[in-house]
Design goal:
heterodimer; A: alpha/beta; 19 strands; elongated; B: alpha+beta; two-stranded antiparallel sheet; 2 strands; 17% helix; 17% strand; extended
Chain lengths: 761, 53
Amino acid sequence: MIRSIIKRDGRKVLYDQAKIARAILKAMEATGEGDAESAARVANAVESHLESDRLSDAPGIEYIQDAVEKELMNYGFNETAKAYILYRANRTRAREANTSLMHTIDEITQVDAKASDLKRDNANIDGNTAMGSMLQIGAAGAKSYNEMYLLRKEHAKAFREGYLYIHDFDFYSLTTTCTQIDILKLFHGGFSTGHGYLREPQSIQSYAALAAIAIQSNQNDQHGGQSIPNFDYGMAEGVGKSYRRNYINILTDVVEDACDTEDLKDRIKAAVETVERNAAETVGLGNGPEFDAQMAEDLAVRFPALQGQDIAHFLTRVRKRAYKLTDHETYQAMEGFVHNLNTMHSRAGAQTPFSSINYGTDITPEGRMAMRNILLALDAGLGHGETCIFPIHIFKVKEGVNYNPEDPNYDLFRLSCKVSARRLFPNFVFLDAPYNLQYYVPGRPETEVATMGCRTRVMGNVYDPTREISYSRGNLSFSSINLVRLALEANHDEKVFYEKLDWMLELTAQQLLDRFEIQAAKHVYNFPFLMGQGVWLDSEKLANSDEIRDVLKHGTLSIGFIGLAETLTALYGKHHGESEEIQQKGLEIIGHMRDFCNKKSQAMKMNFTLLATPAEGLSGKFVRQDQQRFGKIPGITDREYYTNSFHIPVWFPISAYDKIRLEGPYHALCNAGHISYVEMDGDTSKNIEAFEQVVRWMHDCGVGYGSINHPVDRDPVCGYVGVIGDVCPRCGRREGEQIPQELVEKLRRMYPEMPAFQGIM
Amino acid sequence: MSEQSYNEKLGQGVGFERIRRITGYLVGTMDKWNDAKRAEEHDRVKHGLSVHA
């Protein structure tokens, strides 16, 4: 006689046959086989089964469930037996996930980030702080839930087993990745941050401050990086407003002095407005001599006291002073912007927003002033000369605008090379690459490609071909395929590899669509800034309670990949840096993936794009799993990471020119985003010509987005920035060593920008 | 504590900062990098500027 059973947690409880019958009935209802009576009959049989076994007076839960399965099959309820088995498996998985979640939270709470790789998954989050840990605990809980309840079984399996990586999985059910914020559209008429309404800015200082606020506000609505595609055009307007205000103020002072009177501001304003109306242009840095002549004429009539004075001359003085003041204000505004973005916190204070700004093509004097000053502020660094981590600066290179010596912004291109050679930014985006040039319309900066974060790019638009622009759009989500796994499984068989690749592409596209369904069902009110303030394309046409499905279709669903180099080595014995023939094989694989994206886009009328995945967290994840299964295979799984996207392996010796030449063609294929890096040796700031030559070679090789890495070290004691080997070239100390007081004083006289220390001052 | 805490000793115990790029953005200290990325940074070789490496 069964009197009691042992629960999973070890407790002994009273045996209750009705409970077994209820569970059986539930499974029967799900399959449509049987009813309450047959459920009771099976439950009875289970009880006799347990008694006849007589293994124990108190059987365990698992044992009872085994008996239920057997008896269901005995009675011919095959479908119900299957459903019951599946239900058990799911429950087991849920229990295991729950345990593993608790272990994860335990690690987040107890272990120092130095010892926990998990806590360093994202280098931008400080896993040791309270808010950083809270974010990580939230992420762990969300991931656990999402895998259990939101993923299809085959997607969960591919994800778990390391075929597929679903990026930003913690945000799976919550939001989308990123947006290019059209800062001018946002500013015109003012905007609300969700915590307060801000009037349209009226000076370069407030343009810069509000730009930082816009990035911060949007950061809380999305999980990816934030970018401004038109920083030059946007700030130009602020520079123009500041210049006009300074011009009027200085002119007022000068005229008041000349007339030996006061309170002329309103009359000067009236004069300026009259001339502006007649000349059909506002006061700005670019006014020609004709404008000033009209101004002189008007002033002479308005202020008889000025007669006999050289009005034209003092207007020149006014312009010089207004220029100088505006330039100074612009520098301060840009410096403040950079400082702001390096120190402001978002997402509960654990992160600095991932921010990017694009500029380079505005040829107005106001836009040029903004760019020159943002570059100078970047070059100067933070308070103690530290290199700025944010924002990412992206200089848009374009022939006819800034690429050739005769181009109007060539000086700024040169300056950007000089600053990048010292500070690692700007990166360079190349508008002349054919796949970018096809969208470019002169005079319409929204048709210029801009990038965000570390590489994401949005241009083509299958959903709405009349809106092939970079502004107000972004990526919705992306998932990356472990190409190396497919190659290893294919075991040198190209045909098998492509079959597996097609299977994975379909699976990934479906997973992205599933995620889209969740995103699309959200409402404007879920994104008070992104949608509520009209940052996202067409969102201004929606009401607060509308679904965002249709407007989201301007965004991209991206399929990424990692480890082309290891994939080629696994399939053909060499990677694309070693042989031109293998380079062709590499282009075939990536071209095949791009074709798939194009076809899927046409079929769904949605933007499926191919991404050269930025693999930070991912770089070690797949290879660890593949090592377990395949062991350490030389050139494939024998390192701690897989090579980023289509890159030539970082450890492979190759010239900068060959690396760029070989990687260039992949940029054309990866329309969701791409980047190529070159590692330069030594202090590049002392060899800017070489630096510029590398950038020009990128331009010529069809690279879409490129960047040059070089060592940037800093000695916080003497403030030296550059390459530091074992010994600081400025103060001569080794790491950790102290330097004599007299030396500090001598250095301070030579380098006034040296950091100030108490006791040294 | 800020770097100013080292003041009186004028650099004693103060290391050098080494800024590196990780998947597109800069990181000031490698303490926060994950193990795989650290290994990758360690393995990076410089690219010569001659036409042939």
